[in-house]
Amino acid sequence: MPIPTPQAASFDLFPTLTRAQIDAARTSAWHYTFEDLTFPAMVIDLSSSGEEEAFIHWLESDSIFLPEGSEGANPPPASISPIEESAASSSRPRASSTASNASSSSSSSEAPVYRLPNLNAAIRDALHKYGGAVFPKLNWTSPKDAAFILPQTSSGPLHCQSPSDVYLLLKSSDFISHDLDTERAYGEEEGSAGGRPKIELVLKKYEDINPAREVRCFVRNNALIGVTQRDLNFYDHLQSEETRTQICDTVRELWEDEIRENYEGGPDYIFDLYLSPKMTSAKIIDFQPYRPSTDPLLFTYDELLDITETAFEPPSDSEVTRPRLPIFKIIESRAHPDANRNAPAYQANMMPLEMIEMGEGRNMAEFKEAWDEAVAAGMAG
Ligand SMILES: Nc1ncnc2c1ncn2[C@@H]1O[C@H](COP(=O)(O)OP(=O)(O)OP(=O)(O)O)[C@@H](O)[C@H]1O
Ligand SMILES: [Mg+2]
Fold first, then answer.
1. What is the structure's pLDDT at 111?
2. Which ligand number lies closest to the CA of residue 179?
3. Whose CA is nearest to atom 25 of ligand 1?
4. Residues whose CB falls within 8 Å of the CB of residue 296, separated by 6 or more in sequence, listed in order
5. Which segments carry the region annotation Disordered (predicted)?
6. 198: DSSP letter
7. pLDDT at 14
8. What's the pLDDT at 332?
């Protein structure tokens, strides 16, 4: 009788993920497990603060007005007496957690008022705790496509110093809408089984990050298969064999010692690390589900599938040595098509809808005037 030959392992391009596995990649789900290995962060659960409905109402309204009292690192002085305030606002539509008449309508010249006092206070707490600057995210996603909306600082993008900075980013971002949409967050099947994702605002201590030391790492079937540099520029110091080996050793060690046994999102996931200057240790920046919406950067998901299948092939006599895992990819030449991209990141997302709508039928000077007025009215809220 012929001896059966072991079957080659077969994997799908993407694993099937449960809602629980996708939820494991929320910052709130992994942050406390890995607290010593990641940057300080505060998670604000909007339903616990009683403002989830009001927050969604504000975020989804097609107005650019920011919640009242959100500007500045400190709460605004309570200089307006209740009588003055009610007189000043009685003519304006209101958006409180219960009011639904606050539609912002661009047709109305009145500025709608949105109130999120608990959220304002929580953001100010985080600012105070973290030395004056925070990096905001929702459940899984940061508003990095909206970085252009804040003035550039030497500190880096998404540098928020007031609640209004946080709101401005969230309001201008398309990326964060992924976290609010059940089907996009959980996929068609899992999404239909449960309600809308609960909304958490994550405020991380703002760190001075050197993108040259960020890597993205891929785990399939509980094997660390690939690592790629995260920022797609050519970096001289990553080129030496010694540095590459050091990075792979550091990533493998951290994954084996800390992540493999403790991460709760199943056998397939992707995580991002920030390496120390000498590449000998690392901090965790983020986890994400193993799915198409996570950018594979210098890999393609087909390549990652090949690597996985080779890694799990049954041993054969004629076996040539298998590649040592993880496979590490960097940009090896200044001429690489991805290197030194001149276009600003996420330029396709650089125009909030309101800007486009306001621009219609106006020349540049009129548009600027209308925009400045709208922003001033929003900030004055
Ligand atoms: N605490 C922080 N302080 C300053 N910058 C940060 C901080 N955390 C992350 N960053 C920077 O912002 C970038 C995006 O952050 P992060 O990976 O958390 O966003 P994301 O929305 O999850 O991105 P992706 O969609 O690629 O997973 C990081 O690559 C890093 O350069
Ligand atoms: Mg992420």
1. 80
2. 1
3. 141
4. 216, 218, 228, 304
5. 67-112
6. P
7. 98
8. 95
Give the pLDDT confidence score for residue 329 in this predicted structure. 97
Distance, CA of 183 to CA of 251 (rounded, Å): 33
Tell me how far the alpha carbon of residue 140 lies from the centroid of ligand 2, in angstroms.
6
Structure tokens at 327: 């496979």
Ligand 1 atom nearest to CA at 140: 22
CA 64 to ligand 2 centroid distance, Å: 26
CA dist 65 and 378 (Å) reads 4
Please tell me the distance between residue 193's alpha carbon and the centre of ligand 1 in angstroms. Answer: 30
**Is 211-329 in CATH node 1.10.1220?**
no
Give the per-residue pLDDT at 316. Answer: 73
**Confidence (pLDDT) at 10:** 86
Domain ranges of the chain: 40-75+91-208, 211-329
Distance from C-alpha of 26 to C-alpha of 138, rounded to nearest angstrom? 9
Q: To 10 degrees, the CA torsion angle through 225, 231, 233, 234?
A: -50
pLDDT for 348: 56
Q: Hey, what are 252's tokens?
A: 């493998």
Listed as ranges, residues in the chain with pLDDT below 70 are: 1-8, 78-109, 191-192, 317-320, 340-381
The alpha carbon of 285 and the centre of ligand 1 are apart by a number of angstroms equal to: 7
Render pLDDT for 62-100 as a digit per residue (tens, 0 to 9): 888 999 999 988 888 764 433 333 333 433 344 443 333
Ligand 1 site residues, Cβ closer than 6 angstroms = 39, 135, 137, 141-142, 144, 156, 204-207, 209, 211, 214, 230, 272, 285-286, 288, 295
How many angstroms is it from 151 CA to the middle of ligand 1? 18
pLDDT at 121: 96
pTM confidence score: 0.84
Q: Among 30, 130, 144, 271, which is best to mutate for testing ligand 1, by the most ligand atoms less than 8 A from CB?
A: 144
Q: Which tokens hold the place of 264?
A: 């709760």
Token code pair at residue 156: 């880096």
